[in-house]
Amino acid sequence: MLNKAGRDIPSVIPGFKEVKLYNGPFAANPTGRVVGPKITVNKPRSEKILKSIDQAIEATGLKSGMTISFHHHFRNGDYVLNMVVEAIARKGIRDITLAASSLTSTHDAIIPYIEQGVITAIETSGGRGKLGELFTSGKFLKKPVLIRSHGGRARAIEAGEVVIDVAFIGAPACDTYGNINGIEGKSACGSMGYAMCDAAYADQVVAITDHLVPHPLYPISIPQTNVDFIVEVEAIGDPKGIASGALRISKDPKELIIAEYASSVIEYSGYFKNDYSLQLGSGGASLAAAQFIKEKMIAQGIVGSFGVGGITAPFVEMLDQGLFKTLFDVQDFDIPSIDSLRNNPNHLEMSASYYANPHNRGPIVNKLDVVILSATEVDVDFNVNVITNSNGVIMGASGGHCDTAAGAGLSIVVAPLLRGRLPMVLDKVHTIVTPGETVDVIVTERGVAVNPNRKDVFENLKQANIPLMSIEELQQIAYDLTGKPESIPVTDEIVGVVEYRDGTILDVIRKPV
């Protein structure tokens, strides 16, 4: 069956009860009600603190066939997921569904437990390293990996499509009754935005901390009313992998050209005015663009309304300098951002649902004017891939890519025209993560292409000193330099399913030959 994005989706996919086709970014009309966790009771002066993760597994009644969840705020410094899965395996529990907000290369340690049948299904935003290679192989898991965006995951949890039996929350700071924040302790990660939905909707919640403090802890990111048990361990993460001192501003000439073009697109787009809102990525070109944008805002006396998303030091600098009034923060990438969340009352923590859930009464992405996003590859229909590499192997994450592209007034995708000897503008991307009808501008070092649907933006950009061209012209430049690449041969076996943020199926990932 062909969906609205032109992708051939099987009517039956192993492990999936229903196949709902993507029919456009705003076509789905939700029905039903938001679900909730099981009703429970906490008796006066009862004890939540347990001695070990093993004891917590026993206390929650975790059994084979259940679903567990984790958050990814610790990124490559995460210890919690690996520790818990190892403990589950020791207890002989099998057939677990792992519903993590995202997975990184540090989680390669769980591969043996996938091979042993401890984990047999995975739902996540993405996978990297050897874990991504395992997903692409189609081995060991009972069904294809399900890829959701950050907003789509929050929606699925609240709609009851993901039923979390036990959520294990890595807690940088936790008091003796279960209040949690992410801005204190040796493993401080900043915002706990992705863990908030898990804590609010899971049937049981275990906080795992290396910084246990007397009650009450404040400020509170996740309240005691959402936490059943607490386990204190020596370390929940490696601070060096959780947050860098400050993410690098690119010195690469190619990335600097892309950043300069992207900032000019913003400046002349018609959105660059007082009280505009902005989201930046954490890649080299996006961070460099932040510097150019800051200079333009100062020169023109522009003060933005809010910055949003995963927060980095350049955004913090703009907040401190009065260039933005507020930051809405779902995760922090560096130490300056964590410090800012701790100290600046205008730096606000938000949940993934507040950020990007399309089926609530107002995600902040719906008020977003401009977003800069990266891409692994794009195509002539403006579709974007950020999940599979040039060999069709899963190596990235959906993140909030399709959420912000859909919500923003102007979505800008930055990417080099070539990576090595490979063109990045194709006839068709290998995997669609963000549909082209929500992408407005593609910026490369060779030129800038505007979606034909955005004639208003194209007319505005004629004033900018940037090379405007069609997407086909950009593609031809790439092909002239490298030749036209052959499509990646694949089998009929589906190893991954890309769900759009509304719960419909946007694309499937087939096993490469």
From TrEMBL:
GO terms assigned for molecular function: citrate (pro-3S)-lyase activity; citrate CoA-transferase activity
SUPFAM superfamilies: NagB/RpiA/CoA transferase-like
GO BP term, pick one: acetyl-CoA metabolic process
Main location: cytoplasm
GO cellular component: ATP-independent citrate lyase complex; cytoplasm
Transmembrane segments annotated in the record for this chain: none
Catalytic reaction annotation: citrate + acetyl-CoA = (3S)-citryl-CoA + acetate; citrate = oxaloacetate + acetate
InterPro entries: Citrate_lyase_asu (IPR006472), NagB/RpiA_transferase-like (IPR037171)
Pfam families: CitF
Keywords: Cytoplasm, Lyase, Transferase
NCBIfam families, sorted: citF
Name the record gives this protein: Citrate lyase alpha chain
Organism of derivation: Pelosinus propionicus DSM 13327
